[in-house]
């Protein structure tokens, strides 16, 4: 017996129709019909436009009857469509009054904001047909992927080691040796590599559909094409980028991405998506009509009193995130990625924007951020904020959290960089960062896990470039080297760029090992930039957003060239995972509050138990008491880290261990490979248990056991 509400009641040009269901928005298969539902507060009329796949002209345009509208939602069921072979869009009619925020134009065919599959730009870098009346084409998803028993992994956040990567750049470079370079499938081929490295979470730079041809142009330097490679300019928030799939030309990008996530999960690796809810690819008032502008401009965007676009994103427009309907769309998007793609978490680009009201003012309790913090479906999903925006709002340590949000700790990056290059006046701040940034997060009871620590990320220098360049070299971007950050806190070790000097190159490798050492022994969630583990360079370009070439791609030949760096990364990541004392959840008491004989965490100087406090000091040491970090009743080891960023060698007096224990050396960045680091658990006991000598610009890590 069929349900009555699945029978047609109307007919238009041979197609059978009936009143649709207003919710859910988007295109949903219901029995032998497709339900099309779209919201617009200010539109007066709506027309559904249907194409056969890849055809230049629609085969039918169906006006929504008056009885097909409920409130501000147009909804209609269309029966007996071959839904896997159609593309659909909308024409919206309504007022044209830019000063009031309305930009309706019924000559435009508009993409569904809730489209879960987007066609039209299926092959990376393929020149679009600019005369095509409908560039980005919404399609209906056939949801038949077999997840078997897969679910989000729910790895405790303090156990994560995050690896930030770009889908295309990761496997397009020399000697990547994958069958499908630059795709989700290409990453899947590299899972054994990720597992050997030891990371247990990948953070994918934007994978939502975007336009690589946005602002594309030939480089004035050498003529190669500059693209929007990074993709921080969304076309749709529900659809994966077709050109990131080897099967995208066949409309199979959904399954290819799901298969990647399923394989990563099977290998214990979580997936975090970098999401961009602060603006869209439609730009300012001179930008294209793609979707939101033509469907409901006044609802979707923050507008000035004159009807122009606020630009807190630096990209031409700003999404009106705290409008209730836009807020619902964002929540629905995140729920969809968690339920249908089993995604483990999200990093929110320029997240401070998400806390602005429709006039751009920061809100004390932003409803969107609160909704995400308390959403039942997202209840165990990681939420990470880039806690600043392009409008000058900087909220590191003050991002509204409700106990749920973590933050990219930009203060960690800046302090550690300055310390590594030997700046004075920074050690006090470095101590806060290494111990979990209690000055930022303890007063809010957010815990150490609120801090995502990083030294490099996609924005800025790679780790190799951080120690090879004093200034940015972005000439290839075609903006006269004006773009990109000027304050890099970098040091070239005595020569600008690549060189043949063995001493300089040895120092650079040592500085890279110093950097990853500090990152892995700091309290908080460490994040490393893809390629840093093999000494990847972007040749001094600190804003490679447009470089679809050797500047932006990983060069896998570096694995052999910089084998010592890779081995150091691999071993120190394992060291972190082997020691719970490096992964506390809550800030230290800096005292022996459980009467275990030693404080949970203690600072030292070149003399044990006597930390140096001089403003120009470049030496310090700390000790972790593993007895405060038990696993199933078994205490961890003591860990001692001596840091000497001075240009001379210094002796460090060691704290005395409990009877029956001795200090063993795990890592010494002054030593040449392979003696610079051990396999965890195979540390060698040192002969002198009273003092160690730490070389210039070096770090030693000891284990007391």
Automatic annotation (TrEMBL):
GO terms for molecular function: amylo-alpha-1,6-glucosidase activity; isoamylase activity. GO terms for biological process: glycogen catabolic process. Its EC number is 3.2.1.68. This is Glycogen debranching enzyme GlgX. Keywords: Glycosidase, Hydrolase, Transit peptide. Gene3D superfamilies: Glycosidases, Golgi alpha-mannosidase II, Immunoglobulins. PANTHER family: GLYCOGEN DEBRANCHING ENZYME (PTHR43002). InterPro entries: GH, GH13_cat_dom, Glyco_hydro_13_N, Glyco_hydro_b, Glycogen_debranch_GlgX, Ig-like_fold, Ig_E-set. The lineage of its organism: Bacteria, Pseudomonadati, Bacteroidota, Bacteroidia, Bacteroidales. Belongs to the glycosyl hydrolase 13 family. It is an enzyme of class 3 (hydrolase). Residues 164-576 form the Glycosyl hydrolase family 13 catalytic domain.
């Amino acid at each position: 017996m069929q349900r009555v509400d699945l029978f047609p009641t109307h007919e238009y040009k041979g197609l059978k129709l009936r009143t649709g269901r207003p919710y859910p928005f988007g295109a949903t298969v219901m029995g032998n019909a497709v339900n099309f539902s779209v919201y617009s507060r200010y539109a007066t009329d709506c027309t559904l436009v249907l194409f056969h796949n890849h055809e230049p002209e629609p085969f039918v345009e169906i006006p929504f009857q008056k009885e097909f509208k409920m409130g501000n939602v147009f909804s209609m069921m269309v029966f007996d469509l071959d839904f896997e072979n159609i593309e659909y869009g909308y024409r919206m009619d309504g007022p044209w009054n830019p000063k009031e925020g309305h930009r309706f134009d019924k000559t435009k065919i508009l993409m569904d904001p809730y489209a879960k599959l987007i066609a039209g730009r299926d092959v990376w870098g393929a020149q679009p047909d600019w005369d095509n009346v409908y560039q980005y084409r919404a399609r209906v998803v056939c949801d038949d992927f077999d997840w078997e028993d897969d679910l989000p992994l729910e790895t405790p956040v303090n156990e994560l080691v995050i690896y930030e990567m770009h889908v295309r750049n990761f496997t397009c470079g020399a000697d990547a040796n994958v069958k499908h370079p630059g795709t989700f499938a290409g990453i899947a081929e590299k899972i054994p590599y990720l597992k050997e490295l030891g990371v247990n979470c990948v953070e994918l730079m934007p994978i939502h559909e975007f336009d690589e041809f946005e602002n594309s142009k030939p480089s004035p330097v050498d003529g190669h094409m500059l693209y929007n490679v990074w993709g921080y300019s969304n076309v749709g928030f529900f659809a994966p980028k077709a050109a990131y799939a080897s099967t995208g030309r066949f409309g199979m990008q959904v399954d290819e991405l799901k298969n990647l996530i399923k394989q990563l999960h099977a290998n214990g690796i979580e997936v975090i998506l970098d999401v961009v809810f602060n603006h869209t690819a439609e730009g300012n008032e001179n930008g294209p009509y793609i979707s939101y502008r033509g469907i409901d401009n006044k609802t979707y965007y923050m507008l000035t009193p004159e009807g122009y676009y606020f630009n807190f994103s630096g990209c031409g427009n700003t999404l009106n995130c705290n409008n209730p309907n836009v807020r619902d769309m964002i929540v629905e998007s995140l729920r969809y990625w968690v339920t249908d793609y089993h995604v483990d978490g999200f990093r929110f680009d320029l997240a401070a924007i998400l806390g602005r009201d429709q006039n751009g003012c920061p809100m004390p309790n932003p409803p969107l951020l609160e909704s995400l913090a308390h959403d039942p479906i997202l209840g165990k999903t990681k939420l990470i904020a880039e806690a600043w925006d392009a409008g000058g709002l900087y909220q590191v340590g003050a991002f509204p959290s409700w106990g749920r949000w973590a933050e990219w700790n930009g203060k960690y990056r800046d302090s550690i960089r300055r310390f590594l290059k030997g700046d004075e006046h920074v050690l006090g701040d470095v101590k806060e960062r290494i111990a979990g940034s209690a000055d930022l997060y303890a007063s809010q009871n957010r815990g150490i896990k609120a801090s995502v620590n990083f030294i490099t990320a996609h924005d800025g220098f790679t780790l190799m470039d951080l120690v090879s360049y004093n200034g940015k070299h972005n000439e290839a971007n075609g903006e006269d080297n004006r773009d990109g950050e000027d304050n890099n806190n970098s040091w070239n070790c005595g020569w600008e760029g690549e060189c043949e000097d063995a001493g300089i190159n040895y120092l650079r490798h040592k500085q890279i090992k110093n950097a990853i050492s500090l990152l892995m022994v700091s309290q908080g969630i460490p994040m490393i930039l893809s390629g840093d583990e093999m000494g990847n360079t972007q040749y001094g370009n600190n804003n490679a957003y447009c470089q679809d070439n050797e500047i932006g791609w990983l060069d896998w030949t570096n694995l052999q060239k910089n084998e010592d760096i890779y081995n150091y990364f691999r071993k120190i990541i394992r060291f972190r995972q082997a020691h719970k004392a490096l992964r506390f959840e809550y800030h230290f008491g800096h005292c022996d509050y459980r009467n275990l004989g030693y404080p949970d965490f203690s600072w030292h100087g070149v003399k044990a138990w006597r930390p140096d406090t001089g403003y120009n000091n470049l030496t310090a040491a700390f000790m972790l008491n593993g007895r405060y970090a038990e696993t199933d009743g078994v205490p961890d080891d003591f860990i001692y880290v001596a840091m000497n960023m001075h240009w001379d060698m210094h002796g460090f007096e060691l704290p005395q261990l409990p009877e029956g224990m001795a200090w063993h050396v795990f890592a010494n960045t002054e030593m040449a490979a392979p003696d610079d680091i051990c396999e965890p658990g195979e540390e060698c006991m040192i002969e002198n248990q009273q003092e160690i000598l730490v070389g210039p610009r070096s770090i030693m890590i000891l284990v007391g056991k």
